[in-house]
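Chapter review: from sequence to fold.
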Amino acid sequence: MPTTPDPRPLVGEPLALDLLNTRWMREGEVQDLLTDVDGLGVWLAANGLDGGYFPDTRMLSHVLQARDALKAAVDGSLREGAPLVDAVLRNGRVLVSLTAEGPRELPELSNPSWGPAWLAARNYLELLDTAPDRIRRCAHEACILHFYDTSRNGTRRWCSMAACGNRAKASRHYTRVKES
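The token string follows.
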């Protein structure tokens, strides 16, 4: 698997949002981790999926399809995004069983190359079921990152207070000083 470090500014979000965050802004330019199979390998490793899935061009194509579908659903509307997310979800299903350890859910996939894409789409459904109002896009106008708001009162606005939050504060301060 790749030894390349993950270059993204925000990692560790739920799988669906982490997939969206494979595109980010740096100095006014959109960066994209998923331009090749190596980038896919970095994303798989960052999400603990590198043990069961081996990146190839087919998997990359499926993951890009899932990212586009999730973007349509999250940044657009569920009406617009639902058919696209469903197109990804049609490539797998959940097999539910009872084991000695308790209930178990395993994905059954039409092809293993759909695994990461399907898991991301499935994760989005779980987030919608849990707290859809906590799925957010960063409030900074120049940021395209997404996060799941886990703050107690649900008022998080920035992907990172140290980055986007600080830039917004600095911008407001500059505006106040300039107007004075």
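Two observations follow directly from the output. The first strand starts at residue 23 and ends at 26. Helices lie at 15-20, 37-46, 57-76, 78-89, 115-130, 161-179.
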